[in-house]
Amino acid sequence: MKKLLIFCIFLLSFQSVFAQLNFLPKFIRQMYFRKDTSRKPGFVLLPALSSAPETGVEFGGAALFSFYTDTLDRGTRVSSLFGYSTLTTKGQVKLSLNANYWTPQNKLHYTGVISFYNYPFNFYGVGNNTKTADEKHTGEKRYKLGFAGEKRLGDNFYVGVVAGVIKYFYPYSYDYSSILYSPAVQDRHGGASAYIGPSFTFDTRNNNTYTTKGMIISSYYNIMHGTYGNNGYRGGFFNIEYSQFFLLAKQLVLGLDIQEQSLTGGRSPFYLLPQMGSDEMMRGYYQGRYRDRNYIAGQTELRYRIDKRFGIVGFVGTGEVFHSAFSTDQLKPNYGGGVRYFFDIEKGLAIRMDYGVGQKPAGEKRESGLYVALGQSF
């Protein structure tokens, strides 16, 4: 049974009627139909409800608090606090708090995350051609604390540092025939690591929430060292992403996005391997269905702003994971489309819903996924 996800957006297609007739309570109108252009702080809450046999009923929601550190300078970017929390009737939980802080005139940029997941997931093995028949359902506990800080040098260049700790735990399994006991799966019971490293960003975007022109190239390298019972682990994680935006017409934007990730070092803990699939890149693939030491993907998205409140997008992309050798023959496709509702017009903040489609492996159903999230995909 596929997981059913429902986000209540209060019948947005009738927003003009509700706004004129004051049909909805004031706090709901303020969250979803905000017209204020005074650069004041904003808050939005999205309830979530889902159901699956392995979790029972899952309920909770996401909340976003947005603000400017300088309300007079029009160039200062939007800062935000984003929280997500759900609980299932079988005692599973997701808790996450993310901060994104820009100082006045964007001289410093800080991000932070603290999260705890105790939630099941499906593991398919390591490599670019895993099979649905090998699916192993298992639980995961994950603790993460991360921080990044960058200082602007010149007009568009930022240099900084990333640091944090992360711990994964997986229950012991006595099914030695499962994919978890494949020789390619290292550190199958989890482990803890601390990391620190440099970050570099080149950013010419005209806006960080709804970009219509400019580019951003961001990269970091995490130097990782095992902790607690994982003291023997030494490795690293490299990430680089390039995005560029072109204003084709007044309401039409073309976005390009390319990302590469690599795990370095002699060992390959399966939980640290780059993973294909998310609500931002390679939409349509279950996150972690394909994972390996290297990952590269690219996408292009055409965004049309129908009016101040609504927009539609179409996207197409491709990507793959690989151990050491990249092959164009192994690239997997994805494509799809979605809608956008801008609940805060002044800040360019939107709720998005996308449907992505991936490949159809031989003898299996075509891969696909529905995504509801806050903000743009990139």
- How much beta, percentage-wise? over 45%
- Share of helix among residues? under 10%
Number of helix segments?
2
Query: Could you name the ranges where pLDDT drops below 50 across 5 or more consecutive residues?
Result: 1-19
* Main pleated-sheet profile: 17 strands, antiparallel
* Rg on CA atoms, Å: 21 Å
Question: How does this model look, in words?
Answer:
- Helices cover 4% and strands 54% of the residues.
- A hairpin with a 6-residue loop joins strand 10 and strand 11.
- It contains two helices and 17 strands.
- By secondary structure, the chain is mostly beta strands.
How would you summarize this macromolecular structure in one to three sentences?
The chain has 378 residues and is mainly β. Helices cover 4% and strands 54% of the residues.
How do the strands and helices of this protein lay out in sequence?
Layout: E1 4-7, H1 15-21, H2 26-32, E2 42-52, E3 56-67, E4 79-88, E5 93-102, E6 108-123, E7 136-153, E8 157-169, E9 190-203, E10 214-227, E11 234-249, E12 252-264, E13 294-305, E14 310-322, E15 332-344, E16 349-357, E17 368-374
Antiparallel strand pairs: 1-2, 2-3, 3-4, 4-5, 5-6, 6-7, 7-8, 8-9, 9-10, 10-11, 11-12, 12-13, 13-14, 14-15, 15-16, 16-17
Give the tags:
378 residues, globular, disordered N terminus, 54% strand, mainly beta
